[in-house]
Specification:
With 295 residues, this protein is of the alpha+beta class. It has 2 domains: 3-201, Up-down Bundle (Alpha-lytic protease prodomain-like), CATH 1.20.1510; 208-293, Cation efflux protein, cytoplasmic domain (Alpha-Beta Plaits). Helices cover 68% and strands 11% of the residues. It contains 8 helices and 4 strands; from the N terminus they run αααααααββαββ. The protein has a 4-stranded mixed sheet with strand order 3-2-1-4. It starts with a helix and ends with a strand. The mean pLDDT is 82. It is a multi-pass membrane protein. It comes from Craurococcus roseus. It is found in: Membrane. The chain crosses the membrane at residues 12-36, 42-63, 75-97, 109-129, 149-174. Pfam families: Cation_efflux (PF01545), ZT_dimer (PF16916).
């Protein structure tokens, strides 16, 4: 079992345990704000299951039908999670409206809040683990799950403080207001998540900082060539695809041009983890005098 798959299994277990704790906190208090927090955890469980399926599918090797591999499967998981977040927000707003019309004081507030604090602490700890492993493994699904958990932690902390304020002050309208604010917060985080995932599905180029590093490594390792132009990049999960045309002197032998390509590939793979490189070699008559100039 790969580290990514093992981490995804861990996410399912943590999400399920946190959901049980949050439902217990809501059952003890009857607070609609804590119900909203629990509904968001339902999304976490479904999203963790989707991330597990996506990570396992993305790990499959390339085949005849998918010659570029299955890495993009992880983006579908992130898009699904964003859609589920929107659904959870709608359900929360519906519950908040009902509680606004008929507010009621939370019961057993101290015990319910203590349970919610434990659940929030577990979420925070796992979000840190997911972020570290997601970055190390370059997994969009794990990073998306981590981002959503961090948003959930912030939301839960606000809900805990708010419900405590309701119990202390008797201002019952605070409870549905907190639930509505929770819905707005997860809508915002869901929108960001969908935007990032759609960018991956649409083959967005790598970030400017990484592109600058790629150009630098290419220029430093292409001694003997004339230029590299039509540089194109894109991400697909943990993979980074790099394609360009390499112009060499027309009289250069094939084995010499091939040696330059090997040197460039080694430099790029050392600079970019998971790089998949395609180089089209051209004679000097094809030079465009733009892009990455070597000579």
């Amino acid at each position: 079992m790969s580290r990514a798959v093992a981490t995804a299994f861990g996410s399912v277990a943590v999400a399920a345990a946190v959901l049980v704790l949050k439902l217990l906190a809501w059952g003890l208090t009857g607070s609609v704000a804590l119900l909203a927090d629990a509904l968001e955890s339902v999304v976490n469980v479904v999203a963790a299951l989707a991330a597990l399926a996506a990570v396992r599918f993305a790990a499959l090797p390339a085949d005849a039908n998918h010659p570029y591999g299955h890495a993009k499967a992880e983006y579908f998981s992130a898009v699904l999670e964003g859609a589920l977040i929107v659904l959870a927000a709608v359900l929360i707003l519906n519950e908040a409206w009902g509680a606004w019309q008929e507010p009621r004081a939370p019961e057993q507030a101290a015990l319910g809040l203590a349970v919610s604090v434990v659940a929030t602490a577990a979420n925070a700890a796992w979000a840190v683990v997911l972020t570290r492993r997601g970055k190390a493994l370059r997994s969009p699904a794990l990073l998306a799950d981590a981002q959503h958990l961090f948003a959930d932690v912030v939301t839960s902390a606000g809900v805990i403080l708010g419900v405590a304020a309701v119990a202390a002050t008797g201002l019952l309208w605070l409870d549905p207001l907190l639930a509505a604010l929770t819905a707005a917060n997860i809508l915002w985080s869901g929108g960001r998540l969908v935007r990032a995932s759609v960018g991956g599905l649409m083959d967005e180029a790598v970030q400017p900082e990484l592109l600058s590093r790629i150009r630098g490594a290419l220029s430093a390792s292409a001694d003997g060539a004339i230029e590299a132009h039509d540089l194109r990049t894109r991400h697909a999960g943990r993979l980074t695809f790099i394609e360009f045309h390499l112009v060499v002197p027309g009289a250069m032998r094939v084995d010499e041009a091939h040696a330059i390509c090997d040197r460039i590939e080694a430099a790029l793979k050392a600079e970019v983890d998971g790089a998949v490189i395609t180089i089209h070699v051209e004679p000097e008559g094809k030079a465009k005098h733009q892009g990455v100039l070597v000579l």
